[in-house]
Every structure is written in structure tokens, then in C-alpha cells.
Design a protein that fits this description.
Blueprint: E1 2-10, E2 13-21, H1 27-41
Antiparallel strand pairs: 1-2
Length: 42
Amino acid sequence: MVEVTLMIHYRGKNYLKNVMVEKGTPEKQILQIAKEQIKKQG
């Protein structure tokens, strides 16, 4: 597992997210995981 830190612009706000993923996970999938976490935050 590796920790990836992302800055995501979502609905007019910037979010800094840390995502734990398996090494070699495609970037598109990492972005999707981060967006799902933001949606859960409310």
C-alpha cells in the first residue's frame, strides 16, 4: 500500500485528500476513490 496525496477541485472548493491504494493503481481509479471520499464528507 502507498499513500497518495491529491489536490482536487470539486464543486467550487479545493480539497486535499490522502488516499491509500495498492502500488500500481491507475491514476483514474485513484481520482475516483478520492472523489467518493469527498462526496461522503458531505
